[in-house]
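Please review the protein record below. Tell me whether the encoded fold seems credible here:
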Amino acid sequence: MERKVLIIDDDEESLRLYGDILRRAGYSPKTAGTGWEGIDLAVKEQPGLILLDLRLPDITGLTVLETLHTALSTKAIPIIVVSALSNDDNVMKAMQMGAFDYVVKPITYDDLVRRVELVFFSRERQGEGERAPVLVIEDSTADGSSLSEQLVGWGYTVKWVRTGTEGIEQASSGNYDVVLLDGLLPDINGFDVVKQIRSTERLGITPIIMLTVLSGLVDKLKGFESGVDVFLNKPVSWEELRVRMRSLTHLRGMSKQRFQLSEVVSVITNAIELAETTEPRHNQKVASIGVILGKRLGVLGHGLWILEMAGALHDVGKLAIDHRILTKPGKLDAAEWAEVVRHSEFGERIIKPVHGFAEIAEIVRHHHEKIDGSGYPDNLRGDEVSMYVRIVGVADSYEALTSDRPYRPAFARDEALGILRKETEEGRWDPVVIAALTESLDELEHL
């Protein structure tokens, strides 16, 4: 499934940079250099997200935003506005007009990928806060009351405590989607409160907003090191807090969903290995190898998660294959081999109905494809074989070659690599992926 992001920016260097980041993270960027071109492309392409620079050569970004949110065909497309200034009044106007989020140039790799993932993998909530639980740690009666009143008005459920000690105790329950705390508390320094919250979290994924009168770079760096996600200066801008809360609660929901899915995937991979008792931890190893290769090849963020899930689930279709065939010690006959080959198609059918797993299902179906067209089940060749499929295919083959099988003992590392290199010369594997594998051998030894 194509994951399109439209970038509207008149700066060619920005278009190139954002496009490269998004491609590495598994998205399909489309670009426009003017506002009117962006509006036209939004209508034609129907992207899942738009990155909109507020300063354009023909019309303003606010005009583009208003036009897109007025048109029936584009009004539901989330828009992240981009500004070169953190105090740009047009940013707040854009948020009031319905922009999903905003970012300030220069944009880092991680920040851009995280924000784009947030849009693509968060479910729409009924009501802005949908009663999401929020912990407020604030000793000031006036500030605590106004914060609680605003958050409740936006649809959140609020627990307000006045000391760092109480905040740490409440946060340790893990029941909150966002924590807001004052940087200056009466009993414990706010940075130390954040450190203790992070040390007691099960997953370390609860977003934390620090409200502070401190504005120095050193203080903010100290806060980020302790685990703060967002700084907001006092007095708080309600519009900025509102958009940050919306973004962070979606992010928290996405993180929890991924963790839950990962636990389910772990159960499934254990079931696969019970069906195929001769390959202990094969699926987990393929997932780990895929992530290592992906990182070396520049894959980021969501793309690494896709590789991990596809690697872990690539053989799920074997649950539908006769156990006696999978464990046969000798060579398979033609009928048995024809049955084994079907596991990739079975795997796709098992995974595809899962929400958000369509792209993973495609990789599972094609993980035995080769770029020379000799693979199965669809005999794809060349560019028809995606980079993700190439990576998972190499990870699977390398792990299989270096593991004992019913019909042969494991090959040594160098022997396995020699086999893959020979097959690469014959046109089966992508030389770039095999080079990444070669460079990662020492890292793979520790799996």
